[in-house]
Amino acid sequence: MSEHANLLRRHRAVMPSWMALNYTDPIEIVGAKGNRVTDAEGNGYLDFFTGILTNMLGYDVPEVRDAVERQLATGVVHTSTAYLLRGQVELAEKIARLSGIPDAKVFFTNSGTEANETALLLAAYARRSGQVLAMRQSYHGRSFAAAGVTGNRAWTNVSFSPLDVHFLHGADRHLPQFAGMTDEQYIDACAQDLRHVIATATGGDVAALIAEPIQGVGGFTMPPDGLFAAYKRVLDEFGILFVSDEVQTGWGRTGQGFWGIDNHGVTPDAITFAKGLGNGFAVGGVVARGDLMDGLHAVGISTFGGNPVSMAAANATLDHVLDHDLQANAARQGATIIGGLAAAAGRFPVVKDVRGKGLMFAIELADPGTGEPSPPLAAALMEAARERGLLVGKGGLYGNVVRMAPPMTLTDDEAAEGLGILIASLEAVSDTAVAGGRGGSSPHKDGAAG
Ligand code: PMP
């Protein structure tokens, strides 16, 4: 048995079966530089998913490495809410300023799940209510509260929720009652639905609406720009808070706005973030109106967030994003790739949809015969891209969406290379689908969410 095969055997023996690994022959990454990684067998890949969106700048970035090494050299490697930590204050100042939220304050966590727990706690406490609004097909994490507001049951274990949750439409526009509507009509219908839910199911005493501006795990589903502005007008009438989960959409990735919610012209009461900020180091958090943050009469949700090494990495990463205007790069490279995919899509009957904003884009696969969502085709596309040297991710209610969020440092050449591989992979998969009649859907049931 090869060392690689032996590692896989050991993984299966001691790690939970629901930690489903990508690919029939899972990859062990042993080296990484720039926007490329190398596996244990010496294969190189262009990385369009970086773990699960964890590396905004790609790998082995000199500024991030230097900042981390400087912090390590001080010997101060602990995590504390009891002492002043300069890196926390500096990063909080930057994020508060960038948030656009008046008098904003920041609390750091280690993950997006904890960030959302914190935001829900703030809202429930401020409003003295355990009622929350969330979106169908959303993903916010797998703790009890975060799973409770996750409207994509295919990706969660529990239906139990400590909060009383009401789910809204928004991104699931393909329902028959919305057929043929313009964006304006659709937004209007959603706003009316929100008003109706509040009036009929809650009595108005709702803590917050939590939503992703673009649904990540949901398969990069996007409500039309302006939907959340319409929602916000209704929420404001009732004093209901709005939490934007920017774990995937933040830091300029969507190109048009620094936060995904900027695409809707809305300033939320709280923003949650995680993933890419530490460029691989664990850091998450919530930035919220100061009165909400200070209103919590207890220490934060954990004593363990914001360790100095993660703060050093995150400060260096955020500075790099801003200094190099990576938001503009995300807009430019994203337009090339999305435009290229959209132009090619007509040639492939397996492609149901190409969508995205900036460096967040997806290909939805459907059985060419029945039009049904096709998880096997998505899996085949992932394998075909891997064979050609490109790593991508998957998502969607049925696991039938191949989604990508390359590092925001993506170059012109890398964008062209990735696009070329995707088109070649679609050709290969389409040929097999036509020859072998591949397809068929059942709701997604593996655990590799992200
Ligand atoms: N919110 C969103 C939008 C996410 O995509 C994720 C992770 N996929 C989470 C929250 C949970 O973050 P974490 O896995 O870091 O706990």
From TrEMBL:
Enzyme class, spelled out: transferase
Domain of life: Bacteria
Pfam families, A to Z: Aminotran_3 (PF00202)
Keywords: Aminotransferase, Pyridoxal phosphate, Transferase
Required cofactor names: pyridoxal 5'-phosphate
This protein's record includes keyword Transmembrane helix: no
EC numbers for this chain: 2.6.1.44
Classification via InterPro entries: Aminotrans_3, PyrdxlP-dep_Trfase, PyrdxlP-dep_Trfase_major, PyrdxlP-dep_Trfase_small
GO molecular function: alanine-glyoxylate transaminase activity; pyridoxal phosphate binding
Keyword Calcium: no
Quaternary organization: Homotetramer.
Family, similarity comment: Belongs to the class-III pyridoxal-phosphate-dependent aminotransferase family.
Name of protein: alanine--glyoxylate transaminase
Organism, as annotated: Actinomadura darangshiensis
